Amino acid sequence: MGGINVVARFRALEGMDHKLKEILLALIVPSRADEGCISYDLHQAIDDPSVFVFYETWESKAHLDRHASTPHVQQFRSKAKDLLAEPAQVILLSKIST
User: Fold this and answer.
1) Residue 5: CB partners within 8 Å, gap ≥ 6?
2) What's the confidence (pLDDT) of residue 2?
3) Ramachandran assignment for 15, one of left (phi > 0), alpha (psi -120 to 50 degrees), beta (any other)
4) Does the residue 85 lie in any domain?
5) Which DSSP string do the residues of 5-66 spell out, in sequence order?
6) Mean pLDDT over residues 60-86, rounded?
7) β-pair partners for 51
8) Is residue 64 part of a domain?
9) Domain hosting residue 42, numbered range
10) Which residues lie below 8 Å from residue 69, measured CB to CB, with a gap of 6+?
């Protein structure tokens, strides 16, 4: 199975984890409906509830790029900028094991 996997990590400012969680959760339904989305799952760190991680799989980099320019992602970026303790960390991965 080809495609591209994404790990996107976000850390909320102190006391903002509930608000960040709310806007991250709001991304799931429209993102899963984006063309080329294979999976789009949000996780929260057990030992630090201010840390959230999306694990995503897209059919191609082009699909991921289109997703990044959608209105729901742009709206998230606008809302999240005042809630993040640090810039988001995004890692693009290609599966190499069988």
Assistant:
1) 55, 56, 57, 58, 92, 93, 94, 95
2) 65
3) left
4) yes
5) EEEEEEEBPTT-HHHHHHHHHHHHHHHHHSTTEEEEEEEE-SS-TTEEEEEEEES-HHHHHH
6) 96
7) 11
8) yes
9) 4-93
10) none
Nearest to 84 by CA among 16, 6, 38, 26: 16
Q: 38 in a domain, yes or no?
A: yes
Q: Is the dihedral of CA 65, 30, 7, 96 positive or negative?
A: negative
Q: What is the mean pLDDT of residues 11-25?
A: 97
The neighbouring-strand residues paired with 4 are: 58
53 φ, ψ to 5°?
A: -135, 125
- What mean pLDDT do residues 22-43 have? 98
Q: Does 69 score more than 60 pLDDT?
A: yes
Would residue 98 count as lying in a domain?
Answer: no
Q: What is the CATH number of the domain that holds 55?
A: 3.30.70.100
**Structural domains of the chain, count:** 1
